[in-house]
Amino acid sequence: MVRAAARLAALTVLSAACSGGEPAGADAGPAVPYRSTLIGEPAPAIERFHLTLESPGSERRRALRYRAPAGGHERIHIWTDQSIDVFVAGRRVNKVAPPTTEVSFELDVARQAGGYRCTGWITDTSSADWERMAPGGGRELRSALEQLRGHRVTFEVDERGMPGATSITLPDTLETNRAEALDVLHAVNGAVVPFPSEPVGVGAKWSVAFFEPGRSNLAGSVTFTYELIAVRGDRLELSMTFAPPSEPSPLSLEASQVSGYRSGSGSGAFKIALDLGRLMPDISGEVATDIEGRTFIGSEELPFRAHAVSRQRIESR
Q1: How far apart are CA 209 and CA 65, in angstroms?
Q2: CA-based R_g, the chain, Å
Q3: Is 199 helix (H, G, I), strand (E, B) or coil?
Q4: Do the beta carbons of residue 271 and residue 285 sit within 8 Å?
Q5: Which residues pair with 67 in a beta bridge?
Q6: CATH code of the domain occupying 6-316
Q7: How far apart are CA 16 and CA 34, in angstroms?
Q8: Which positions ≥6 away from 206 have C-beta within 8 Å?
Q9: Could you report the per-residue pLDDT of 112-142, keeping only the tens digit for each?
Q10: Which of 46, 36, 7, 79 is nearest to 255 (CA)?
Q11: Which of 90, 97, 240, 277 has the most C-beta neighbours closer than 10 Å?
C-alpha cells in the first residue's frame, strides 16, 4: 500500500518508536501476525493491499490511468525529517530525532502488458546531521548508505498504480544499518499513487489498507486515504492522510519486548501533485502519529505512548 510518500516515513517512525528488529524480506507474503499469549488469540491473516472507493466525487467522472511513455526516464529527490517521543507510565524515556536525509533516484520506466516495470537506482544520499543521531557513529551510517549508490531495484505497477512484483533487496555486502537502508530503497516505489478501478470526479475519496510484515511492528493494516482535489487535463491535485490501526491488535514483536497495542491515531496531511504521463508525483506535508499500548521494563508491564512527527517532500522531473 501506501503508494504515497508518507507511507514509508510513517511506518519507519512506528517501528522506531517501538524498538523493532531487522526488517524481514521485502517480498514476504500475507502472514498471520505473531501470537502473543499476553493478548489472546492472534489476529487473522491480513490482506497486504486493499483499495476501497469511499466516494466517486462529482459528475464529469473519468477513469484515472497512468500513461507514461515507453522508455521513460524520471528523476526523484526525496527529503525526510522525523522526530519521536516515547513515554512509559507517563514519563518520557526516549526522544529520537533521526537525521534529516536526502536521497536522489534515477528511474527507468518500461511498458509491459497492463502496466509498467520500473528499475531504480540511487545516485546520491546526504545528511548534514548524522552525528546528532548517533554521536561517533555518523561515519558508519554514511558508509552504509554510500553502498546503495548504483544498487538497482525493480518494481511493477499496473496502469492504475496498483503494486505488482517487486525485487527490492539490499546488497549482500551491507552489514550495518540495514533497516535504514531498506527504507531508503522502498521510498521510490512507495511514492506511486494508486487509483480506483471506477471513474471518479473532484471530491472523490478512496482508501488503501496496507499491511507490510517486517517493515512495521504493527500487526494490523495502516490506512491511507486519498481525496481528489482538482483535475486539469492529466494534472491532478490530491491530499492524503494516514491512520495506524485503530483497533487493538498484537504487535509483530516478541512478547518480552512489547505485550500489546491499544490504539493509534494520526493527523496532518500530504499534498500530492501528479501528471498521468509520469509515475512519480510531487509530494509535501507532515503527519503526526500517536500510538498507545503496553510494554515491559524488566519484569514489570507498563503503559507506553509514542508520539511521532514525519515530514517528507518528494520532487520529481
Answers
A1: 20
A2: 19
A3: coil
A4: yes
A5: none
A6: 2.30.230
A7: 18
A8: 51, 52, 53, 54, 195, 196, 200, 225, 226
A9: 999 999 999 989 887 766 555 555 555 666 7
A10: 36
A11: 240
